[in-house]
Amino acid sequence: MTDFEDNDIVCRHMQLTKADIVKVIRDKQLKTFEQVQDETDAATICGSCAADVEAILEDELKKREERG
Ligand code: FES
């Protein structure tokens, strides 16, 4: 679980909020961190947000699995 609210900026270099990242993960059914980077450019500048982006992805994958 992450502590981010939907409107919190997760990647300040790309100005991406949690909601922005979640939307791309859901819309494109992304599975890997690399795919999230390719689609959003998150964590491609300084990388300090990488762990947070990964945590958001993991939450989404878990939710996807639970939904079946
Ligand atoms: S904060 Fe995400 S690349 Fe710098």
TrEMBL record:
A Pfam short name: Fer2_BFD
Domain BFD-like [2Fe-2S]-binding per the UniProt entry, residue ranges: 9-58
Organism: Marinilabilia salmonicolor
Name of protein: BFD-like [2Fe-2S] binding protein
